[in-house]
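Render this sequence as a predicted structure.
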Amino acid sequence: MALKKAYADIILNTEKEAAKRIMVSERKVVRLENELKVAKEDAVQMLMRVKQMMDCKTNTSAASALGTCFLPVTTNNSNFSGYA
């Protein structure tokens, strides 16, 4: 009888440890998905900024008339001024 209880305890503890590892892995997946989403958004913003810089440099008549090129950028980043 004691042997059965010992086996049952071992199996229960093994199941608990496996469940903990699964929960940790699921949290890690959610965190990595969020990091990927942020990285994609940052990449899109950088590409838009590069495109605006290239457009500004190729449009020499507007740049020479204004002296500089100010193109508004829509972004959710609060540290960004919004101008090229």
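Summary. Residues 2-66 form one domain. The chain has a mean pLDDT of 83.
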